[in-house]
Design brief:
Blueprint (H helix, E strand, L loop, with lengths): L9 E4 L4 H12 L5 E4 L5 H9 L6 E4 L2 E3 L2 H11 L10 H17 L1 H12 L3 H8 L5 H24 L4 H19 L12 H9 L1 H4 L14 H10 L3 H13 L10
Parallel strand pairs: 1-2
Antiparallel strand pairs: 1-3, 3-4
Helix pairs in contact: 1-3, 1-9, 4-9, 5-7, 5-8, 6-7, 9-12
Length: 259
């Protein structure tokens, strides 16, 4: 049963973020009615620190607790809203699903983000439009004015930080290799149904596969450098699988309008 309105979960998010997409998908998959607050890139770090002590989003307010890690968010949702479980029932399968969740979180997440930012940052106007969608006009104007500095900071932290553009692309391809190997022709990564492992891998690959079920605007077209990278992987089994996971399981949003 969903919480009464005064106790609704609240998701503090960046719209154009694959880790945030992971948390949104978990809430929507379980049908957990919630509200969302979209933050401005850059200043989201300060808001996150006030909310939970870390400097990243998403942050989920659930039953009076602020949770700021996607693995912890899904664990808390499994406990509070066990319907439509994302954890397999068997202990061995559950451990395997959690292992794969951690693998893609650490071995794909930071690197695909670095690769897509490397390709999109040179297109500053389009980058600001996508990353500030849904925010106030005033915030969008401020983000445009600050974009030269912001793009330099993003490149330093999120592209160069994980190892630079080439490393980010290589690690993204390696994650696709791992996905293909784990699937080995199967529909799902663990057992016969959709689990946290499938959700994590598909959500973190969204900038690559650009699924039509993504709830917010995506670049159309993507920058040529990213389109070329996408095409280089489009024939891989994991690429089609990620699109299929979105088609089968992304479903509709459980977000409620702001009061």
């Amino acid at each position: 049963m969903n919480a009464p309105p005064e106790h609704l979960p609240v998701l503090w998010q960046l719209r154009f973020s694959h880790y945030n997409e992971k948390a949104r998908w978990a809430l929507d998959y379980k049908g957990v009615a919630h509200r969302r607050h979209s933050l401005a890139p850059g200043s989201h770090r300060y808001r996150a620190r006030r909310l939970w002590g870390g400097d990243t989003t998403p942050v989920l307010e659930l039953q009076g607790e602020m949770i700021g890690d996607t693995t912890a968010i899904i664990a808390a949702l499994e406990s509070a809203h066990p319907e439509r479980p994302l954890y397999p029932a068997g202990e061995a399968d559950r451990e395997r699903a959690l292992e794969l969740e951690d693998h893609f979180d650490t071995e794909l997440g930071p690197y695909i983000r670095g690769a897509v930012f490397d390709a999109t940052l040179p297109y500053r106007k389009e980058f600001v439009e996508i990353s500030t969608q849904g925010l106030s006009r005033r915030t969008q104007v401020m983000q445009r004015a600050l974009s030269p500095l912001a793009c330099r900071v993003v490149r330093r932290l999120l592209v160069d930080g994980p190892g630079g553009p080439e490393v980010c692309r290589e690690k993204t391809v390696a994650a696709m290799d791992r996905l293909d190997a784990e699937l080995n022709g199967n529909d799902y990564l663990v057992g016969d149904g959709f689990t946290v492992a499938d959700l994590t891998a598909a959500a973190l690959f969204f900038p690559l596969v650009s699924p039509p079920e993504f709830q917010y605007d995506l670049p159309e077209p993507w920058p040529p450098e990213w389109e070329e990278f996408r095409r280089s992987l489009a024939d891989r089994p994991g690429y089609g699988w990620a699109l299929e996971m979105y088609r089968r399981h992304r479903g509709s949003s459980a977000e409620l309008p702001q009061a």
